[in-house]
Each structure stands twice: as structure tokens, then as C-alpha cells.
Amino acid sequence: MKKCDYCAKEISYFEQYCSEECHSNANKYYETTEKYGKLFSIINMICFFGIPIGIFLFAFLRTAGMIITVASCDILGIMLILLPFPTENMISKYKLKKATKITRIIGLAVIGLGFMFLIFMLLFPIIFPD
Question: Which residue spans traverse the membrane (predicted)?
Fold first, then answer.
């Protein structure tokens, strides 16, 4: 059996969505993707490279490195929660609803990673002196 492209419920072979609600939710998602896709890509790239750059800078400029690393993690995580745009592979494997939920969970994990960096860098000044 074929599955609904939004919620993954089983449907007949000739349908794409199981209900009008799933169809409208999928349309809203694709409209949002079209509207904010470029912004998402730019912020994603900046933050993705900001994390290792901040960690590298931490060895030389402790405060600046910490700020860049934590800010990159937190901005990336917030963006993944507010604009959960999963990859096409995730959508084809899990369908849109579950892939969006997984992306939001990844966003929470990235925010948690940012706070872990902050706590680690603040609590262990002996390891990383100024």
C-alpha cells in the first residue's frame, strides 16, 4: 500500500494524501519552504561554519570563541525549531510530519549543545586560562 505524503497513513494507490487536512498542511509547509528557504540556507551555512570557527578561536580568544560557538549553536537550534526544513531524503523515508518533528528535536539538541559548550567553558577556567 501507498502511504500519505504528510502523515504516512496507508492510502490507496491513486491518492497522495489521506485527508484534506494533510493536503493543506503539506501545502503550508511547501509554501513556507519556498518563502524562507534561501534565508534558512544562509543562516544554516553561517551557523554551521560558526561552530568550528568559534571552537578554534576559543584557543586564542576565549571570550570571543565562546560567544561565537554558543551563539551559532543557539541560532541554528532556534532556526531548526522555527523553520523545520528536513532534507528530501528524510521526507521520503519518514514522510513530512515525522521528518519535521525529527528536525525540531535536532534543533533542541543543538541548543542543548550550545548550552553545554557554555557551561563547559564557564565551569572549567582552569583548563582554559585567559
Answer: 39-60, 66-85, 105-128
